[in-house]
Amino acid sequence: MAVLRPFDKLPELNSATILLVGAEGGPQQQLAEAMLCEKKDFNINIHLASSLPLPPERDHLRPRIDLIAFVIDIKSKYSLKSVQASLAYVDVRFFLGKVCFLVTGVGRVNNCSVEMNAIWKLGEDYCSPVIFCELELEGIRVATAQRLLRMLQICAGRVPGVSALYFSLLMRNSAGD
Amino acid sequence: MDEVAVEYIRRTVLKIPRDEIMAVLQKWGFLSEAQLQTINFRQTKESISHSVAQLCEESSAGIKQAALLDIIYNHIYPNKRVWSVYHMNKTGKASFFSFSTQVTINFREYEDNAIWIRIAWGTPYTKPNQYKTSYVVYHSQTPYVFISASTLRSNLPLLCQAMVVASNYHNIREMELRSHCLNSLKDIVFKRYSQNFQTNYPLQERNVLTENEDLRINDENRSEKERIHRLNQECFGDGPQPKLDFAQYKLETMFKSDPKWDVLEKKEPFRCLVKFSSPHLLESLKSLAPAGLADAPLSPLLTCIPQKARNYFKIREKSSLHPGSFVSP
């Protein structure tokens, strides 16, 4: 049961879960803490992983995942490769708005190892929004945390009238212009 | 009046950071306290150096004092030079060749049994040039010598011969170990760094949650991270690593490709050089796996650097029985 499926488990009351995949270490942990600091009216669970598949032994403890954010560090080709390898373990129904790509490290233009074309292509192939940020700067980190939190709310179905699919189409159309 | 010596002293003083000039001059001990008090250390370094030169001229400083100041400067700032490590042994026959050249030699002994030897090179026909110096650091109880040859590498064989004779050994061999940081080289050859120990006892499980916040952040790969941490501990040990600048691997292996492509008609070894450089090579290697940039365990070619006490490697083909490559000793 290595593939992550979106509707395999029952949702929990008044809570939502986000899975951050990729870019081990500092950036992930700090982003998670920033998300926890935000004001919200539901319980939030944050799971951190460096790649998929997730270890099977903790499968029964894991809640239903509402949003997967793949974190790519633009300074490291290795992080792009590991995200691309992890995408194979995600069920196709996740890509109807419950996946987004978070690209960090864009503040340091001189240290870019990953090509922009590769990132855009990834976003297009998987029909998911791409968010650029610089997690080392606190202001941008807080702003990114707020955006992710808002997306998580929508993906968990907590915003009436807006579904994850509708929202992702909205994000993609506005990015294309 | 030795103008060469005074100018040499002035240039040495110019190399020292301004805030530390007073301390170095006091260690030198050639100028008296009264004389040192007359120097205004709030001027520019150029002016300070001229003041010092003036005082040295008045006190008739010679080459010997100039050389001593140079030794003291290099002892305090050894990281400005590149040091190579040599190993002496008593095997084999002692062989000598005669060579005559003019040199200036100065010695100074320090507390940790280290003898610092400064040699200024000339030629058989000219006086020694004080600006072309080599340094030798020798610990009398050990067979190791640290040499910083700087400019004239042609004098290196003569220097090695002299060391062998002076220390009563027969042979000297260059270990493939070089760095800017002299203390780290000493740590590596004297085995003073923290080494890895293979533990056969299972580590205790760490189930303690430090803060309540942690319940909401779940690390899926915690056991993997702990495995990497444990492997790193086994490879590198706990303490700070010796400071090396680079590791160089010279490949002399055959190019292996699909036989039907037949890229190279001649069966020659493929020459390739790989160099890793870093301000602190071993610490950066240690942090590769935890940062997610490499898989743990790291290649033994990288982790064996302190144990084998070398950072230049030649990788050749193994002999015909077993295909693959091995590291030459």
What does this structure look like?
The complex is a heterodimer of chains A (177) and B (329). Chain A has 177 residues and is α/β, with parallel strands linked by helices. Chain A has one domain: P-loop containing nucleotide triphosphate hydrolases (Rossmann fold), CATH 3.40.50. In chain A, 36% of the residues lie in helices and 17% in strands. Chain A contains five helices and five strands. Chain B has helices at 3-15, 21-28, 33-37, 45-58, 63-76, 156-166, 182-189, 222-236, 281-286, 300-303, 305-308, and strands at 83-89, 103-109, 114-121, 133-139, 144-148, 171-179, 217-219, 246-254, 269-277, 312-317, 325-327. In chain B, the strands form two sheets. In chain B, strands 2-3-4-5-1-6 form a six-stranded antiparallel sheet, with helices on both faces. A four-stranded mixed sheet of chain B has the order 9-8-10-11, with no helix packed on it. In chain B, helix 2 (21-28) packs across helix 5 (63-76). The longest helix of chain B is centred in the C-terminal third of the chain and has 15 residues, at 222-236. Chain B is globular. The A-B interface holds A 23-25, 29, 32-33, 36, 43-51, 54-55, 58, 62, 76, 78-79, 82 and B 213, 216-221, 223-224, 290-294. Chain A: This is Centromere protein M. Chain A: Keywords: Centromere, Chromosome, Nucleus. Chain A: Its main location: nucleus.
Secondary structure layout:
The complex is a heterodimer of chains A (177) and B (329).
Chain A lengths: L14 E7 L4 H12 L5 E7 L17 E7 L3 H10 L12 E6 L11 H10 L4 E3 L5 H18 L8 H13 L1
Parallel strand pairs in A: 1-2, 1-3, 3-4, 4-5
Helix pairs in contact in A: 1-4
Chain B lengths: L2 H13 L5 H8 L4 H5 L7 H14 L4 H14 L6 E7 L13 E7 L4 E8 L11 E7 L4 E5 L7 H11 L4 E9 L2 H8 L27 E3 L2 H15 L9 E9 L14 E9 L3 H6 L13 H4 L1 H4 L3 E6 L7 E3 L2
Parallel strand pairs in B: 8-10
Antiparallel strand pairs in B: 1-5, 1-6, 2-3, 3-4, 4-5, 8-9, 10-11
Helix pairs in contact in B: 1-4, 1-5, 2-5
